[in-house]
Design goal:
- By secondary structure, the chain is an alpha+beta fold.
- It has helices at about 1-55, 65-85, 100-105, 105-125, 150-165, 195-210, and strands at about 90-95, 130-135, 140-145, 180-185, 215-220.
- The chain is built from 6 helices and 5 strands.
Amino acid sequence: MVSLFFANDCELVGLNNNLIYLYNFIGLLITLLLTTLFILIKKKYTKELDYLKQLAFYDPLTNLPNRRMVYDCMDYTIALAERKERIFAILMIDLDKFKPVNDTLGHAAGDELLQQVAGRISKQLRRRTDMVARFGGDEFIIFLDDITEQRIVEKIAESIISTLTTPFQLSSTDEVQISTSIGVSFFPKDGMTKEVLLNCADAALYQAKNKGRGCFIFHEYE
């Protein structure tokens, strides 16, 4: 009876150990499955979030920041410039002779032209703090942060006008030639809010077009 008792007791101990091992194994397996599931969900969520962000803040044609991003960036740039007493410039760019390209060669050619224009403008910006955005249609906006002298803005405006005057090679035709007009405003000289600064740049752009196009004008109060 005693030996039988000890034999049964050992079997119970062995059974309990097996149950513990099985429980730990199941727990580990569940943990691994839940961790894998969490990683997959996180990747999918992050990818979808990035896609929604891309749609919200970037132009799908040129992959440049869009008008909404411009407004958000201007709020941040103005706050930073006020705090650090910096000067920054806004260049409003409008393409001359773009409409005839769209009307004559079609929207596909117009879209291709805008993509090439975006690429050429981007190459003229050397500093990481500067930004170009598509404001809408054939209008682009450039932020030039921390300007120490006016000549910096002049050189960039001149380089943009020069590069956009060079003929474009489109897949649908041999060559297309356009030009561009640029209006410039400065913070804080021309305004302290994004609305005023954009209006001043737009007014200067209008003056550049009236002057004969293919040039840039700094905003001046009459």
